[in-house]
Amino acid sequence: xxxxxxxxxxxxxxxxxxxxxxxxxxxxxxxxxxxxxxxxxxxxxxxxxxxxxxxxxxxxxxxxxxxxxxxxxxxxxxxxxxxxxxxxxxxxxxxxxxxxxxxxxxxxxxxxxxxxxxxxxxxxxxxxxxxxxxxxxxxxxxxxxxxxxxxxxxxxxxxxxxxxxxxxxxxxxxxxxxxxxxxxxxxxxxxxxxxxxxxxxxxxxxxxxxxxxxxxxxxxxxxxxxxxxxxxxxxxxxxxxxxxxxxxxxxxxxxxxxxxx
Amino acid sequence: xxxxxxxxxxxxxxxxxxxxxxxxxxxxxxxxxxxxxxxxxxxxxxxxxxxxxxxxxxxxxxxxxxxxxxxxxxxxxxxxxxxxxxxxxxxxxxxxxxxxxxxxxxxxxxxxxxxxxxxxxxxxxxxxxxxxxxxxxxxxxxxxxxxxxxxxxxxxxxxxxxxxxxxxxxxxxxxxxxxxxxxxxxxxxxxxxxxxxxxxxxxxxxxxxxxxxxxxxxxxxxxxxxxxxxxxxxxxxxxxxxxxxxxxxxxxxxxxxxxxxxxxxxxxxxxxxxxxxxxxxxxxxxxxxxxxxxxxx
Lengths: 261, 297
Prior knowledge:
The complex is a heterodimer.
Chain A: H1 2-37, H2 40-47, H3 52-56, H4 67-93, H5 96-100, H6 104-108, H7 114-146, H8 153-178, H9 185-205, H10 223-229, H11 234-257
Helix pairs in contact in A: 1-4, 1-7, 4-7, 4-8, 4-9, 7-8, 7-11, 8-11
Chain B: E1 2-13, E2 16-27, E3 31-35, H1 42-49, E4 57-62, E5 65-66, H2 71-77, E6 78-81, H3 93-103, H4 109-119, H5 132-144, E7 150-154, H6 162-177, E8 181-186, H7 189-195, E9 198-203, E10 206-212, H8 213-217, E11 222-229, E12 238-244, E13 247-252, H9 256-265, E14 267-274, H10 278-296
Parallel strand pairs in B: 3-8, 3-9, 6-7, 7-8
Antiparallel strand pairs in B: 1-2, 1-4, 4-5, 9-10, 11-13, 11-14, 12-13
């Protein structure tokens, strides 16, 4: 556990920068809602008549005038993208940064096994991702309470659960990649997150490219779908979690045998 | 028991050579020198011993523990000072030292305090601000504070000032007297000669000599200094010829009679015949190898 603690300490600054930024923006978003409800009728109309852009963000499926509809689209984009970026950043660097900073030699010349190092790093990464989600969730609930709206517990919990699952898929993939690379990790992490985000948008727009959803972690956290159907799309969750597990196992296998230079 | 036992250890990085069929053994309690120029494979050997890289073939063990299958046990018994020490950014010296002890699940407070004092290391400083020499000191404390049975040091003195080097070798000699085995890799031959009892010389991944430091120095080569007018070119086995003020000095590896005959013919006022120091022996091994390679071609 020494090492988990050490990892958490090392990641503390990044954690608070990302978490507070995401939470702050979500709160702003929620606070904007009462002001916008007045003009909501025209807004809903506008948003639902933007053609493919409307479909891309799923705005044809939900009522933009309700708090949860508004939240799913607006806050959903912020938490979806922000959370994915943060997760990608920390997990793609988790093994690679030791080699980039040349600290792996220091670490691995202590009596620790590689498996132990990977496991503790994994625990620390998941802990940071979960903590970020908990903080954002609490701030979000708090903000909704402040503006005096009733909290849509079921939908909002489901939505946030979906974000966590989406981030876990990204974390798994990036973790696996992290074992292979030595530098330039951040670019790869962000690249994957952005690529997946756009794959999902494309899949939403073009009917023929629906299959692309299987390649994107964002298909699990489609706010509009979740709010309108009241459930997660299990086939995407299943694929996503399988990919995450494959990524993690790959990371274990590669890092256990890797030559540390 | 052998502290370090290496049998036919080979490491290729893809197609690039690391070390080839290296075998050597170091007895417990020995102060062992490992000599070779940059890129000879010293660090590759050490990194294999510590399990940082996995050997292509061959076996090795430290205090009877296999380096591949029992790496954790090996690391428990070893202290390692890398040639370039890097630490986690943003941490203080004291935190790094404590973290290292925690990873070993040991309380080394007393020992680390003493080491920091002797090496004049300020534990409150941030590791990012340290000079190369001071970072090295942090590495030394981390390698020594848990009183390991085997100490593996990779070019330990680079960056340390002469006073610190002296203090450092005093500490090593104390540890050696207490029973610790010391494996010192270096290309500074004088420190090997002063401290080590035995040494191995490696070149291009292969071991070319392994013997006591005394016998390594005592090859059939002599160091000759002549004062006066002396034509070295008439001797067939003279190398490293240097013109010094009023005379010549060189290394001689041929028949002593030939040398004396040649000396007798010359107008000289003084001559010294001495054992070469390790540095010159080292050159000797390398030059010989080169000459042999040349003949083969």
